[in-house]
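Before the break, one more example. Copy the sequence into your notebook; we will annotate it together after we see the structure.
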Amino acid sequence: MTIEQQPSAVTLGQTLKVTINDLAFGGEGVARVNDFVLFIPYVIPGETVEVEVIEVKKAFGRAKLISVITPSVDRATPECKHFGACGGCQYQHIAYPAQLAMKRKQIADIFQRIGGIAQDIVAPVVPCPRPYGYRNRIMIRSQWNKPEQRLNIGFVRADCGLVEDIFECKIAEPALNEQITHVRNNPPPKGGIKVVLRIAPKDWEVPRDSFFQNNFFLLPGLVDTVRSALTAAGTKHLVDLYCGVGFFGIALASAVESFVGVECDRMAITAARKNAAMKNATNGEFISANVEDALPNLVNKFSAAATSVLIDPPRKGCLPQTLQLLRDQRPAQIIYVSCNPATMARDLNILCADGVFTLAKVTPLDMFPQTQHVECVADLRAAVA
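Here is what the structure looks like once it is written out:
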C-alpha cells in the first residue's frame, strides 16, 4: 500500500510517495515524512517519487527509489549502463548545469553549518570542459562471484560491499577503458585484488603511489584559480605544503621570487626535483620533511609578511598542530586546496578564529563531474596588525 506522508511512524519495508526537498552532500536526496527525514539516492529536488524504506534509525531513515512520479526538468538520461549499481557516480541522472548549481549550494551549506562561513563567499562552481571521459586514474577490484562461479572485475557497488562487474567506465578517459578491457582479457588469478589503472601526466614524473590530480582537463583552471589568488596577495615567496611531486610550486614558480615545497614522501620529493629541472623552475627547492617540523623555519626564513603558504592536505584535512603553527606564524596569505569541503570548513573555522585570518573567497572547481566530489580553493589573508 502506498502511503502519502501520513502522520504515522515510518517502518522498514514501507512504500511511500514523497517530495524531494533538498540534495545532501554525498548525493542523497532529502525528503520528510512529517518530522522524519528520509535519504534517497538518484533523485532531484522538487521531484515526487515512490520509494521503499530500507533502513530506519531514531532520527532518520534511508529508502531506495522505486519510480519517479513527477520528474524534474533537470533529470537526464545516464550515459553509463552501470549507473545506480556501481558506486562510482552519484549524479549522472542530473543535467550538468544543475549539478554545478547543486554542488555550489551543498558547499555553501556545509561551510555555513561547520565553519560559520557566510554563503555568499562561495563562488559559482567552475565547470569541467569534459563532463564525461575525464578521469586519468581509477582502481578496479576483483571478487569471486560464487553463485555464478566467475570472477567479477569492476567497482564496489553503491548498496553493499560487493563488486559490480563492469566493462567500461564512462567518466574514465578512453585509454583507461582500453586498460579495463586488457584486465578483463587477462584477469587476476583470484578475488580480492586491487588494480590501479593510470594515465601518466605528460612531462611530469610521478612515482607509482604518489598523488597527482585525476582530471587533466580542468587542471589548467585549477592552476589559474590558485595563481589568481597568489598574485592578488602580492607576496614574494611561496611555501607549498604537502607538495607531492611539486606540481603547484613548479606551476606557480614564475609568480614569485622563490618557493619551497615540503613533502614527507621521499620518492615524491625526488620526483619533484626532477620535475623542477625539466620545467626549468630554478627559483625553488624541495624538502623531505613533516610539515609540522619544516613550517616554522620556512616562514621565518622568508618573513611572514612576504609569504604565501599553499596547503593541499589529504582528505582528512590538516593536523591541529599544523593549523596552530599557521596561526602562530601568520603568513600574509594561506591558499587552501581541498577535495573535502567538510574538513576544509572545519580547518578554515580554526584558522579564522579570533580574526587571525580572514577568508576572502572560496572557488569550487568541478574536478569530478557526475560524482559527489568537488575541489575547492580558499584564499585567506592574515589580519593587519
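The domain at 100-128+213-382 is CATH 3.40.50.150 (Rossmann fold). The longest helix spans residues 96-115. Try to locate both features in your own notes.
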